[in-house]
Design a protein that fits this description.
Largest sheet: 4 strands, mixed
Number of strands: 6
Number of domains: 1
Strand order of the largest sheet: 3-5-4-6
Radius of gyration: 15 Å
Distance between the termini: 17 Å
Structural class: alpha/beta
Shape: globular
CATH topology: Spore Coat Polysaccharide Biosynthesis Protein SpsA, Chain A
Length: about 160
């Protein structure tokens, strides 16, 4: 099932609220396998090439943000439903305060979402995207990513990963 439909749309509502209440002025929801109404104040964008995987979603979202005034992109997947505004706020503030403009949540030793990437890195990020992988290659290639332990705020559990046998 497309993730935006999971739990009768609750995951989607949680993600939008986490981003908006966590300090994101513009919340973009990338749709593909299912096109649904998104909760306000989010706005939808459809990744026509969604079947290519996460890279298509990230490309579509960044492309929409590039046309506006955003200085940072906060990336949060819908299938991490226990991540709230406090986690987004912590990572967004760290990215804004860092030299690199890049920050990522971690839960214990496991990296996770949200990931915040400053505008000056978006072109480089877009050049690394392929297949069903998001920003992983981009982030692994850098030594200036600020990692923030957010285990006190959420588990960051990716429901897809945790439900695999």
């Amino acid at each position: 099932m497309p993730k935006v439909l999971a739990s009768e749309g609750r995951w989607l509502r949680n993600a939008v609220a986490a981003l908006h209440d966590g300090g994101c002025d513009d919340v973009v929801v990338v749709l593909g396998a299912a096109v649904v109404d998104v909760p306000p104040p989010a706005r939808p964008v459809v990744a026509a090439d969604w079947a290519e995987g996460m890279s298509a979603s990230l490309r579509a979202g960044i492309s929409v943000l590039e046309a506006g005034p955003a200085d940072y992109a906060a990336v949060l997947t819908v299938d991490t439903p226990d991540i709230g505004a406090d986690t987004v706020r912590r990572v967004l503030e760290a990215a804004r305060a860092s030299r690199s403009g890049i920050a990522r949540a971690r839960y214990g030793q496991r990296p996770g979402h949200p990931v915040v990437i400053g505008r000056r890195h978006w072109n480089e990020l877009l050049g690394t995207l392929h297949g069903d992988e998001g920003a992983r290659s981009f982030l692994r290639s850098r030594d200036d990513v600020v990692l923030l332990d957010c285990a006190d705020l959420a588990t960051g559990a990716d429901i897809d990963v945790n439900q695999q046998p």
